[in-house]
Amino acid sequence: MAVVCVRAPLRALAGGRGEHDLEGVTVVELLRAFEAANPDAAGWILDERGRIRRHINVFVNGERGAEGTSVGSGDRVDVIPAITGG
Question: What is this structure's pTM?
């Protein structure tokens, strides 16, 4: 299992939990599993085509990841919404 870590506002949509142990062999599989386990978060990370939204950054063990990035047991996947403003 890999650990998917989310921060606000996604944490609030995931029952207040910041860490989620999930099964998957790629980033997109983990994110689908996250959204399936946390229906209130559905659509916030993945778009209608199942791709990571532009304003979401994903890191696997500290390195930038994409949909097809492989993940293994014990890996940490951080999901970080981009900060905007001006």
Answer: 0.91
Give domain 2-81's CATH number out of 3.10.20.30, 3.20.20.140, 3.30.565.10, 3.30.70.20. Answer: 3.10.20.30
Residues in CB range of 51: below 8 A, 6 or more apart:
28, 67
CA distance 66 to 1: 18
pLDDT single digits (tens) 63-75: 999 999 999 999 9
Q: Which residue has the tokens 């506002």?
A: 9
Torsions phi, psi of 15, nearest 5?
70, 20
Is the bond into 9 cis (omega within 30 degrees of 0)? yes
